[in-house]
Amino acid sequence: MERQLGFVSLLCPERWVWGRQKFLVPLREQLRVWKVTKALFSWKRGVVLLSMVGDGGLLLSFISQGGPLAVWSLYRLPSVDDDVSSELQRVAALEDADHPKKGALSRIARLVMAVRGWAKKGRKEEERPDSFLERFRGPDVKALASESATAGGDGLAGQGRKKKKWKVLVMDPAGKWYYRWLLVIAVPVLYNWCMLVARACFNDLQRRYLLCWLLLDYLADGIYIMDIVIRMNTGFLEQGLLVKDFKKLRAKYFATLQFKLDILSILPTDLAYFAVGIHRPELRFNRLLHFPRMFEFFDRTETRTSYPNIFRICNLVMYILVIIHWNACIYYAISKAIGFGEDTWVYPNISDPEYGYLTREYVYCLYWSTLTLTTIGETPPPVRDEEYLFVIFDFLIGVLIFATIVGNVGSMISNMNATRAEFQAKIDAVKHYMHFRKVSKEMEAKVIRWFDYLWTNKKTVDEWEVLKNLPDKLRAEIAINVHLETLKKVRIFQDCEAGLLVELVLKLRPQVFSPGDYICRKGDIGKEMYIIKEGKLAVVADDGITQYAILTAGCCFGEISILNIKGSKMGNRRTANIRSIGYSDLFCLSKDDLMEAVTEYPDAKRVLEERGREILTKEGLLDEAAAAESMEAMDVGQKLDRLETSLETLNARFSRLLAEYDATQMKLKQRLTSLETKLKEDKQEELFPEGFISPLGEEEKTKP
């Protein structure tokens, strides 16, 4: 039996079927492979029939000559993104007796291996986006950017495939690959900042590991050069869009200070090795000029990490260690220049075996540097003038730089505890108030337990205060993503307009209720609706003990009362007592907020009311007669509104016609005046022709 099933495990080794035992076959790829439904293979000992069954099923049948029939049925299980039932399809097999031998099995094994390899070439199923969330998201930003970039039409398309291929090389400075590259380039920068100075000061360190240093140096140079190439092909934002034009990218990069530092950092100064010798790593100090890339990596990491305070502390510790390291190297170099063991301040004579090996040299200098820069002292006093100057410089560094760093560390630690301190201040204020008002001990204990629950479950953050600096659309999208599963279960939101839902999400307010608290009582006027985020609520009798139903996460109540639907038998009053069983986290939406939101969305308001009437009708809580009367009253009101609108339109048209009439009258008057003037001039010319001298003189002639 096991020998016969060996080839089956080649296709999917997880779980299989034989005989009456049921094994499941979760194929990783969909078996959408055959355009033909059957394939027949035969040999001297029998026939193998390969055929498709159902949707994605595979039937393997073996018929031996003069022997029994064996059938294997394989089915693809639905993926997690499918909208079908999650029940696993069963696999069955029939078994009667032994039959094929090794030759047949090897052929079947090769066949199955070929089918398996071919099936794996299929593409993975794309994750289906949530239909509820699709209403609030537009097309992908990258797709929009690509459309804008190609909006030039055939001109860009005619530049050939080569340009399209090179466009892929443009790196987005906000993308993950650019950040990963910053991590890569930060490593050689930090290596040069730490090891170049140490190698220049400690001769044993340079000579003992020369081949290793040469390999690391030129590997770092290669990464530097690659970084310049990548930096030239890094896009930037112009009017909110990523620029991918190579000429613009290079022109912008060449105009920056970063480009000048990058060029200086890769100048081949180590060619001077041929003149002064290979053990002069100080010739490579220009590699230190590439430091802005390391700082850029630190800045981006601080923005991306979920623990910025911890990262800042680690970053400051690294700066402290680098400064101590550099100071230790400089102390050793000064001791070497003065002479080891020349006085009590410099490093002891290296001829002494106790101080003559590399580890002791570095550790001693590091110890001296730490004591000096932290202003602890307890080091030998300087003897020479240059030693005094160096110690004074070290003390200034210790006082200025390290005091600043320690102050920043203290500020970070204070910021880390700021949330707890603010929360504790609120508790103290409430305690003081309850003590001043002589609140009972039981109530005081209940309030303290409520605060403890908030702190333990991290519900002390004021979401509105945290997100207030974000634009409304982005804040609404965050709220929808966070509360998506809850909002999808609210019936009145199922067909809600996207813009209205954005407004409503921004108006949701979280509330936490303690065990035994009444959310609402029977007969209360409904002014809010509630959505259960976490916890359990009980619909109880008037005695507060008898439970009729349990409401769990995702349920909502009170949504009909805030719509003020005419004809509702409930009116605006609560019809049940709802009490919190344990601590419950709810979202509250007030009636005023809903009415304010739907004011700008009259169509959405009508849809919500229709949806509410449908719910009331299904539950038998809608008075049809009252609803009809309200609809008639609404129709009368709508007619009046239409009449008012028509009257306003007529008034506007009449005013426009009157203005046109006045303008026409003015033009006619002007034309008449012009004609009268012209007629008078013609009469004068007829009475006094040209060349006629009036006896009254020129003055009389000119009179009309």
UniProtKB/TrEMBL annotation:
GO biological process: sensory perception of smell
Protein name in the entry: Cyclic nucleotide-gated olfactory channel isoform X1
Subcellular location: Membrane
Residue intervals of the Cyclic nucleotide-binding domain: 492-606
Annotated keywords: cAMP, cAMP-binding, cGMP, cGMP-binding, Coiled coil, Ion channel, Ion transport, Ligand-gated ion channel, Membrane, Nucleotide-binding, Olfaction, Sensory transduction, Transmembrane, Transmembrane helix, Transport
GO CC, alphabetical: intracellular cyclic nucleotide activated cation channel complex; plasma membrane
InterPro entries: CLZ_dom (IPR032406), CNG_cation_channel (IPR050866), cNMP-bd_CS (IPR018488), cNMP-bd_dom (IPR000595), cNMP-bd_dom_sf (IPR018490), Ion_trans_dom (IPR005821), RmlC-like_jellyroll (IPR014710)
Gene3D superfamilies reported for this sequence: 1.10.287.70, 1.20.5.300, Helix hairpin bin, Jelly Rolls
Principal subcellular localization: membrane
Coiled coil: 633-685
Any matching Pfam family: Ion_trans
Membrane association type: Multi-pass membrane protein
The keyword Methyltransferase is assigned to this record: no
